[in-house]
Amino acid sequence: MRRSRLLLVAASCALISACSYKPGFINEYKIDIQQGNVLTQEMVSQLKPGQTRDQVRFLLGTPLVVDIFHQQRWDYVYRYQNGQTGAVESRKFTVYFDREDRLASVAGDIAEGNAGELNAPLNKSRLVDLGSLTPEQADKPLPPREQPSYYRRFMDMIGF
After folding, report:
1. pTM assigned to the model
2. How many C-beta atoms surround the C-beta of residue 39 within 10 A?
């Protein structure tokens, strides 16, 4: 009886320790971790001295760190860790305000825009051609709308 118990304990220890071993060819999936504020050069180049706190918040978003001991300073921190390689990329951008709560200066990893970029209008729209209709195609009435199927009406009634 004693020998079977000893054999059972030894087998249990061997099985439990086998769970901690991972062969080198098995790779578990690790996700990419992105934390903080994503700031682009375009966002930073829109900053101008003298802007209010609300204008800065509109352009850059809510700051990650607002220190109660440094009321005139906002910190935008960004950290990205690649899940496969483990490489870490981090950026820090700081905005300083003066006594009247106006933008005084900025510092950090993202460069400021020059004066030409600050005043240049940004053209962010583009023309997309959806196809041209001939006058006879434009005058042609649209076909009547099909009624949804019984299944679709049932799913809409449920809320799906």
Report:
1. 0.54
2. 20
